Amino acid sequence: MEHPKYIVTVDLDLPPLRSGLVPYLAFSQFASAGGLKGELFGSIRRLWTLLKWARHCDVMVLDSVSGKIHPDLLACIFMRFFPKRPAVVMADDMWHKGGTLKYLFQKTLIQLADRSIQRYAVHSLGEEKIFAQLWGIAPEKVKVCIYNYTFTDDEINAGAMATKGYIFAGGNPSRDYDLLLETARQLPHRQFIIATRVLNGHKDIPANVKVVQVSHPEFIRLMREADMVITPLVSGRTKSSGQQTYLNAMRMGKISIVNGKDVLGVTDYIQNYINGIITDGTQQGFVEGIEWVYDSANRDAVNKMEQLAQETVKEFTYARYLQTMSTIVEEAVAEANA
Predict the structure, then answer these.
(1) What percent of the chain has pLDDT over 70?
(2) Residue 33 pLDDT > 70
(3) Which of 9, 24, 40, 315 has the fewest CB atoms within 10 Å distance of its CB?
(4) For 262-304, how does the pLDDT look when each residue is reduced to its tens digit (9 = 90+)?
(5) Whole-angstrom Cα distance, residue 242 to residue 268?
(6) DSSP 93
(7) Four-point Cα dihedral 25, 58, 61, 66, nearest 10
(8) Higher model confidence: residue 273 or residue 153?
(9) How far is 64 from 61, CA to CA, in rounded Å?
(10) 233: which DSSP letter?
């Protein structure tokens, strides 16, 4: 491909544009390298490649969290000096505000890159409200692209839905597993399985908690056979996270219990005690939610909640996500052409 016209570095199978430009899914060109040295080399190679492509392409949909040095964001800083540059949409998980010095550094980089960026696609309504002020950019550049569940029907239906008497939690980014471990200590009669690498080497795991690292199919099986799924999230962050886990659980007809206080995105998908449970982020809140689900007096309400979870989450499909992102890309192209 000598002259790419529509570059996509995020893992999204975006369609052709109305103008006829066909996407080149460039993320496949950037395989992750092992070790710090390999990762740094890979980021530098990615930056160099993006700058070469930027001289010839018309549109770039870039990854906000690519690599330790954020090569996609750095590419936008260098693009400021190009006489002709592509329309750019910055997508994916965006950035969490660090401490004072880190935040000033982050904000400076983003503002330097901002001249090259037409749109930022965030994953939650809460981010839309704070993003522009947080990073010092124009509010009209921020658009919401609500996330989607990712399990396929074949994956969901690969085995029986019979539960096996445990509570499941999984995933790595922005998880507050210390909170979940303390919750488990208060419920010694309940069994928990946590699939994550975050707890590698963690001391003092309660006897009723099993920590595992598993393949994708095994992760799905563990979720399928769980009584419910808990997604304990770190509060106070300036980006949303965890949607993939709790949306996949809901698609399976599981009750998702997620803490929503000072956590972005949860209320975009879950209605408390209707299609899931949103706790206040305390151990007691999780304990009360878990015990409510197990209380036989609530069996009818639990069954209804499971049905509604499976039904309402069908709205959040990958096709819808791509459609929304495509609209955002088209807006960016129209603005760049204007």
Answers:
(1) 98
(2) no
(3) 315
(4) 999 999 999 999 999 999 999 999 999 999 999 999 999 999 9
(5) 12
(6) S
(7) 80
(8) 273
(9) 10
(10) B
Other beta carbons within 10 angstroms of residue 113's beta carbon come to 24
- The beta strand positions in the chain, using DSSP E, are 6-8, 24-25, 59-63, 87-91, 119-122, 142-144, 166-170, 191-195, 209-212, 228-231, 256-259, 277-279
At 144, the amino acid letter reads V
pLDDT, position 27: 84
Model pLDDT, residue 39: 83
Q: First-to-last CA distance in the chain?
A: 28
Entry field: residues in the chain? 338
Q: What is the dihedral of CA 313, 314, 315, 321, to 10 degrees?
A: 100
Distance CA 238, CA 333 (A): 28
* Fold that domain 153-315 belongs to in CATH: Rossmann fold (3.40.50)
Q: Which two tokens stand for residue 201?
A: 């080497």
Average of pLDDT values for 108-118?
Answer: 97
Boundaries of CATH 3.40.50.2000 in the chain?
6-147+319-337, 153-315
**What is the pLDDT, as a whole number, of residue 2?**
56
Residue with the two structure tokens 């795991």: 205
Residues 210/147, Cβ–Cβ less than 8 Å: no
Backbone angles phi, psi at 89, to 5 degrees: -115, 125
Residue corresponding to tokens 């980021």: 43
Give, in order, the Cα–Cα distances in Å from 292 to each of 33, 169, 271.
45, 18, 16
Give per-residue pLDDT as tens, 129-142: 999 999 999 999 99
Range 6-147+319-337 classified under CATH 3.40.50.10210 = no
Helix (H) or strand (E) holding 246: helix 243-251
The residue among 331, 301, 333 whose CA lies nearest residue 145 is: 331
Distance CA 150, CA 254 (A): 15
Q: How many CB atoms lie within 10 A of CB 172?
A: 13
